[in-house]
Structure formats: structure tokens, C-alpha cells
């Protein structure tokens, strides 16, 4: 199948990225995520191809099984015709046996009658009658002729009776054979048909099962294709956003260095000249933006103990009691954090190194990031417009972790910084000043 993979340059160009997409979020997939998405799609495509080949083979099996079933059905029909004819023959033979049995019984009766008559009139008695009564010789000769005829008749009847008995025996044997043929023919036909029907049903069931499997795999492949395209697109967006962030950080660092250099130059210029007894005019420019309080930690550089100011703007709402800004209950009379002013998209920095334990929406607090610094200390960053970290990420002090916004309950873009120690909130300004940060 092999879906075409867009290059990073084409993706970035196609997306028309010309400025930082801070609002889109910064939880972008890595290159490993993109590779895994591609691998998942290729694996699924290979499985779909394999199942398609399997279904083609099974369709051939179904066609063969159906052909065998048709042949078996024809054989069953022929066997049933043979069985039906055998049944007709068996019935006819049974009728013939019945008729032959009746004829044999009649012939046996005739034989019995003739034998009885022959027993009453024998050839010896007729001969004595002829010698003893010559005057009645004609009558005696008639009787002698009748005796001869009777003997011939009895022989004929006896032969017919034997033939009838033999026919009965023969027909009975034929009927038995016909019955056996009938039973075997039907059994063979039914067995062949059952085997063919079972094979055809099994083949059809196999195809139905694989077709269902194919449908499921095709759906999964479509999902994986969508995931892969989304991963590649988001990866490209992430690369562009991170590049823009790096550019802005470089610009900010360059501006900071220029400001420091200008401040140093001005300080040198304002030093009293030897022999002049005084200093000249001029103003020493502090590093932008203006900061208040002592300490070396700023938005541009960390303190000696590694703590940073999270945003460059001024303080708009300090820690402690404050007027209720929302009478409907969406704000509290005590502010447990420290608000920094600024514009939407201003990079927010981690106040110190630690591990990200939360990066998501927190209702009224808007988009929020929580960093665990260890030792029971946690920093909370609220009302963000977008994230630059994900849960589990390890960050250093000064790393950009998010961007300023006005999500949740907020009157405008700002950063709500909260510091928790041992599970209880504390004044972020006092906490950071104690660690050398200018607030």
C-alpha cells in the first residue's frame, strides 16, 4: 500500500507557518511518535493484504465445496431414483411371490386330490376286473385308459407345483437382494449429500469469518492512517513552533546582552573624571524590563541558587487579601498567588528545576502547569494560553514551559503564580526573594 510520506519542509510550507502558533498548544509528537505511527500503519496494511489473500483462497475453497455439493446432490438424485426403482421392483417381486405362493398352494392341492384318486383305483384292480368279467371288458378298458390319463395328469400337476415352489424361492431371494440394494443406495446417497453439504457450509463460514475480520482490519487501517497523518502534521507544527521559540529566545538573549552592554557603557561614561571633583549627568539604564527588589535572579538570568523570575511583566495583584472582583463567587477575597501582567503568548519560565506533574485545564484556573521541585515545594502557573511541556518532563530553571493567556476566570492575560510548601500556599514574592530573585 505504502502511503506517501510528506517531507517536513513540504508540511511546514503547506501549513503556511509564518508566526509562532502558541495558542495551538505545545504538546507535539516526537519523531519517534511519527515513526511508530508509520510502523503501525504498515503493519496493519500488511495484515489487510494477508487477509485479502486468505479470503481469495477461501473463496476458491467455497467454489470447490459448492461444486462438490452440487455433484453430491446429483449423485443423491440418481441414487434416490435407483432406490425408488428398487422399491418398485421389490414391491413387484413381493406381489409375484404372493401370486406364486398361491399358485404353488393350488398345485399342491391338485396333486393331493389326484394322489387320493389314484390310491382308490390302481392298475392291478382294473386288470383283475378285466380277466374276471370278460363281458364287461369295454368298461374295464375304459377304466384302464382313465387310470393312464390320471397318472399323466398327476405328473403334470406335480411338475407345475414344483415349478411354483421353485419360483417362490427364487422370487423371495430376488426380493431380499432388491431390499438390500434399496437400503444401501439410499444410505450411500444420504451420506454423500451430508458430507458435501457440511463441507460447503464450513467453507462459507470460513469466508464469512474472514470477511468480518477484513472489515475490522480495514477500519483499523483507516484509523491508523488518520493517526499517522495527524502525527506527521502535528510534528511538523511542533518543529516550526519550537524553531520560532528558539528564534525569539535568541532575540531576547541578544536584547538582554545589548541592554547590559549599554548599561555598562553608560556607567563607564558617568564615572567622575579624575580632577573634576564630581560626576557628570546621564542615566544608567537597567536591564529591561524594570525589576524591583534585591537579588540576582531575573527573567533573563537565574539567581546564584538557581531560581528565576517566571515572567517579565510587573506585579498586577500581590499575595494576600484583595477585593472580590467577581460577586458571583468566581473570585476569592484572599489571593493565594502572585499575578504578573503581560500579553498573550509571553513565554513563561520555570522558577527552578523540577518535574512536570500536571499540564492541562484546571477549570476556573484555566490552563495550568504544575512543577514539583522536590523537598515539598511546588510551583503553579495558571491562566495559560498554551503549553510547552508535558507531564513527566524534566525542566530546568529558566526553561520556557508555557505561554501567558487569559483562560479560565480572568479579566485579561496574566500569569497567576502560586508556590506551595508542604501542601500549603505561601507568598510567592517573599519565597522567591529569599532565593535571590528580584520581584
Description:
- There is one protein chain.
- The protein has 439 residues and is α+β, with helices and mostly antiparallel strands.
- The protein has two domains: 31-233, Helix Hairpins, CATH 1.10.287; 315-433, Glucose Permease (Domain IIA), CATH 2.70.70.10.
- The chain has five helices and twelve strands.
- Strands 1, 4, 5, 6, 7, 8, 9, 10, 11 and 12 form a ten-stranded antiparallel beta sheet that branches.
- Helix 1 (8-15) packs across helix 4 (137-270) and helix 2 (31-120) packs antiparallel against helix 4.
- The protein is rod-shaped.
- The protein starts with 7 loop residues before the first helix and ends in a 6-residue tail after the last helix.
- The relative contact order is 0.11.
- Mean pLDDT is 78; it is low at 1-25 and 273-293.
- GO terms for molecular function: metalloendopeptidase activity.
- Residues 252-298 are annotated as: Disordered.
- Residues 252-271 have a biased composition (Basic and acidic residues).
- This is M23 family metallopeptidase.
Q: What is the CA-CA span between the terminal residues?
A: 60 Å
> How many separate domains?
2
Shape: rod-shaped
| Top-tier CATH class of the largest domain | Mainly Alpha
The computed structural class is: alpha+beta
Order of helices and strands: HHHHEEEEEEEEEEEEH
Mean pLDDT: 78
Instruction: Give the total of beta strands.
Output: 12
Percentage of residues assigned to helices: 55-70%
From the alpha carbons, calculate the radius of gyration and give it in angstroms. Answer: 58 Å
CATH architecture of the largest domain: Orthogonal Bundle
- Most strands sheet: 10 strands, antiparallel
Helical region count?
A: 5
Strand fraction equals: 5-15%
**Poorly predicted spans:** 1-25, 273-293
CATH topology of the largest domain: Helix Hairpins
InterPro entries: Cell_wall_metabolism_enzyme, Dup_hybrid_motif, M23ase_b-sheet_dom
Domain M23ase beta-sheet core: 334-428
Biased composition (Basic and acidic residues): 252-271
Region (Disordered): 252-298
